[in-house]
Design brief:
The complex is a heterodimer of chains A (about 180) and B (about 240).
Chain A: E1 2-3, H1 11-18, E2 21-24, E3 32-35, H2 37-40, H3 43-57, E4 64-68, H4 72-83, E5 86-90, E6 100-106, E7 111-117, E8 126-134, H5 138-149, E9 153-162, E10 177-182
Helix pairs in contact in A: 1-3, 3-4
Chain B: E1 4-6, H1 31-35, H2 40-49, E2 55-57, H3 68-73, E3 76-79, E4 87-90, H4 92-95, H5 98-112, E5 119-123, H6 127-138, E6 141-145, E7 155-161, E8 166-172, E9 181-189, H7 193-204, E10 208-217, E11 232-238
Helix pairs in contact in B: 5-6
The chains are: A alpha/beta (about 180), B alpha/beta (about 240).
Chain lengths: ~180, ~240
């Protein structure tokens, strides 16, 4: 796991990076899956992860943290609670019980759909999108679309891990991306 | 209205399969809305707008935690989701109220911080929202309990009953050690089947389940009786 060269070597990031487990051939052969569940088993690494995001976003007028199902539900709420923002779950179809807006996005094979509750976000709100990892960027792109369609301003996307070779960063409609580490 | 805590009846032996839950009874809106003599569409509108109508916080001797009314009032009830007759308790509106969300976490943290909990197990997916903030505050591990084929490493699996058919819950091998003291978290307990599966997984690897904690209970479904004798703590009971 490569810690970003352009980052100050925050000593916390090394520990976080070392706590992430790589599982080969999941979900299919050839994929090296970045497993953050082992990070969650290390209370200091998990706390440091949350703190790094909170330090960045405190005092930036962010009123919404949107987390992408399901691992975004793990990292988003602690950030939302610490910075005084609301948390919005962005979910797979038919999970949210109220009226929703939907955004389709492309997978390697086929398409999928992300949904958000109508009225979760007010126009003009400043939003952060959180997920554990950015790969192709399709999911985050759909998340940005949902928030912008509701009139929010997406300030940044935040992930623990980036797979830079998949160039997901280029799919974010020009929105900035903040990550703690890359994996090659 | 204090948080409600109840103990189940005598513990079931681990080898017993829990009984299949009876089909969920059809749900009707609270009776006082009928007494208002409103036409159907307006009654449903009142239900959608009135977040506290079908939700009441638990009473207890000694006084009411002032945070509970706000928490209860932020929960939205959605009729006929996921199917006709079900009154769905929607916590997403609680998450939109920063203070209510903070109070919810605080109430769990206050209860568990001195209980030597070493692992918080959260059930996919809404248990992932409430579990991690609790784990972070009390300084312990968080373990996601997931639907099949989501966890990438070696897993142990537990089958459990649904209203029709069964489902499977998985946990990573090695996440929990013998002697770990565990708290199981979900947003809501209905029949108790999901929580019971989580308890069995944790006990199979030698952990001690100290308690199950949920924001909401549907007491008519008597889920607390299916927890293998483990105690249940909830903030709010829904009619």
């Amino acid at each position: 796991m490569a810690v970003c060269e352009d980052k100050e070597q925050d000593p916390r990031i090394r520990r976080i990076a070392s706590s992430i487990r790589v599982v080969p051939d999941f979900p299919k052969k050839g994929i090296m899956f970045q497993d953050i569940t082992t990070l969650l088993l290390d209370p200091k690494a998990f706390k440091d992860t949350a703190d790094l995001f909170v330090e960045r976003y405190t005092g930036k007028g962010i009123s919404v943290v949107a987390g992408v199902e399901a691992r975004g539900f793990i990292f988003g709420p602690p950030i939302a609670l610490a910075i005084g923002a609301k948390f919005i779950p962005l979910r797979k179809p038919r999970k949210l019980p109220g009226e929703v807006i939907s955004e389709n996005y492309v997978l390697e094979y086929g398409t999928d759909c992300l949904q958000m509750h109508v009225d979760a976000v007010q126009p003009g709100e400043r939003a952060l999108v959180v997920d554990d990892l950015i790969a192709t960027g399709g999911t985050l792109c759909a998340a940005i679309s949902l928030l912008e369609r509701a009139g929010a301003e997406v300030v940044e996307c935040a992930c623990v891990i980036e797979l830079p070779e998949l160039k997901g960063r280029e799919k974010l409609n020009g929105k900035p991306l903040y990550i703690l580490m890359e994996s090659h | 209205m204090f948080p409600f805590s109840s103990s189940a009846s005598a513990p079931l032996a681990h080898s017993l399969r829990l009984p299949s839950p009876s089909p969920l009874p059809p749900r009707t809106p609270p009776s006082h809305l009928y007494r208002l003599g409103l036409p159907n569409f307006r009654r449903r509108l009142l239900l959608l707008r009135s977040v506290s109508t079908a939700v009441r916080a638990m009473a207890s001797e000694g006084g009411e935690d002032p945070r509970l009314p706000r928490i209860a009032s932020t929960i939205r009830v959605i009729p006929d989701f996921p199917k006709p007759g079900i009154m769905f308790q929607d916590i997403t509106t609680l998450l939109l109220d920063h203070e209510a969300f903070r109070h919810t976490i605080d109430m769990f943290v206050e209860r568990y911080r001195d209980k030597r909990i070493t692992v918080v197990a959260g059930i996919e997916a809404r248990g992932f929202i409430f579990g991690p903030p609790i784990a972070l505050a009390i300084g312990c591990k968080f373990v996601p309990m997931r639907k099949p084929k989501k966890l990438p490493g070696e897993v142990i699996s537990e089958e459990y009953s649904l209203e029709y058919g069964t489902d499977i819950m998985e946990m990573h091998v090695g996440a929990v050690q013998p002697g770990d003291r565990a708290l199981v978290i979900d947003d809501l307990i209905a029949t108790g089947g999901t929580l019971a599966a989580a308890i069995r997984l944790l006990e199979r690897v030698g952990a001690e389940v100290v308690e199950c904690a949920c924001v909401i209970e549907l007491p008519e479904l008597q889920g607390y009786q299916r927890l293998g004798g483990k105690p249940l703590f909830v903030l709010v009971k829904a009619a």
